[in-house]
Design goal:
By secondary structure, the protein is mainly beta. The protein is built from two helices and eight strands. The strands form two sheets. It has a five-stranded antiparallel β-sheet with strand order 6-5-4-7-8, with no helix packed on it. A three-stranded antiparallel β-sheet has the order 2-1-3, with helices on one face. 17% of the residues are buried.
């Protein structure tokens, strides 16, 4: 991405920028330029107070920290907390399975749609 595009995207604010990347099919997270600390959910400041944040492509790898299954008449779905390989933890859905054991490895993908979102799938063994 060139500097002009980066400036245009940054002017939108962190939430809109994150959503714009998802619309392009890209899972991007922020990183503090000085310390290398990764940040997720998009913010204007890192938890340690860094304000110079850049957008970087997430590796897509993660580990299940916690998972629960919600059952309804229409069917069940899971809600999981996944520790990204970069460090931050995110709430998500793991597709293709009802549940997974804690510590299972998963891989991210952007699920397209009217509101694109990041979901995870179990890693192949």
């Amino acid at each position: 991405m060139d500097d002009q595009t980066s400036t245009m995207i940054a002017a939108q604010g962190p939430q809109a920028t994150y959503e714009a990347f998802l619309a392009e099919g890209r899972f991007m997270i922020q990183r503090a330029r000085r310390t290398g600390e990764y940040v997720f959910y998009p913010k204007v400041m890192s938890p340690s107070g860094e304000t110079e944040l850049e957008w970087v492509e997430a590796s897509g790898g993660g580990t299940v920290y916690a998972i629960t299954v919600n059952r309804r008449r229409e069917g069940s779905y899971n809600v999981a907390l996944v520790d990204l390989d970069e460090g931050p933890r995110m709430m998500t859905t793991i597709t293709g399975v009802e549940t997974l054991p804690i510590g299972a490895r998963v891989r991210a993908r952007v699920e397209p749609g009217e509101t694109p979102r990041v979901v995870f799938e179990p890693e192949e063994r």
